[in-house]
Amino acid sequence: MSKTKSKKKGASSLGRDGSIVASNKKARHEYTILETFEAGVALVGTEIKSMREGKASLVDAFATIDAGEVWLRGLHIPEYSHGSWTNHAPKRARKLLLHRREIDQLFGKTRDGNATLVPLSLYFSQGRVKVELAIARGKQIHDKRETLRRRTMEREAVREVGRRIKGIPG
Q: What PANTHER family does this protein's entry cite (predicted)?
């Protein structure tokens, strides 16, 4: 007889393919997203183990292009809980893995100074850690207010349609 592996009830899916480890929720509020890219992240063993525990933060993270290489800075991956003296530095710069053509494209679009590279999310894909990187332009205060106003109006319209379908007077 062959035994089948069963997932324990309540077991989390952290560290599995497609699971988002960290997301930068403020980025979509602070920036207008122009284009997104998927990049691999060069990590050491204890960083992977810590991320499989679901520990990472993109709050202060940003990307830079130095000497033809793209680096992710400000990404906080805390030390692995069961690590020893081989643990990593939590705030070190991490190299992003992109094709030369993609790096040149990023450099060309951010060179003028109007756009920046912002990480949106950190996730597992086929056992490897990937980051969703965006070319973004900062929003002015009035742009942020307009976005909030538009989202509120869309939300109210969806609610009203739902009320009318159910026959509830509004």
A: SSRA-BINDING PROTEIN (PTHR30308:SF2), TMRNA-BINDING COMPONENT OF TRANS-TRANSLATION TAGGING COMPLEX (PTHR30308)
The helix, strand and coil proportions of the chain, stated in percent and rounded to the nearest 5, come to 30, 30, 40
What's the rounded Cα separation, in Å, for the pair 7 and 77? Answer: 27
Of 72, 19, 20, 83, residue with least CA distance to 50? 83
- Helices and strands of the chain, counted as H and E runs: 4, 7
pLDDT of 129: 87
**Token pair belonging to 163:** 């009320």
Q: In the prediction, which pLDDT does 7 show? A: 44
The set of residues, in sequence order, having a beta carbon less than 8 Å from that of 20 and lying 6+ positions away, is 121, 122, 123
Q: Where are the domains of the chain?
A: 20-138, 140-170
What's the predicted TM-score (pTM) here?
Answer: 0.70
Beta bridge partners of 138: 31
Token duo for residue 6: 């069963």
Residue 14, pLDDT above cutoff 60: no
CATH code at 20-138:
2.40.280.10
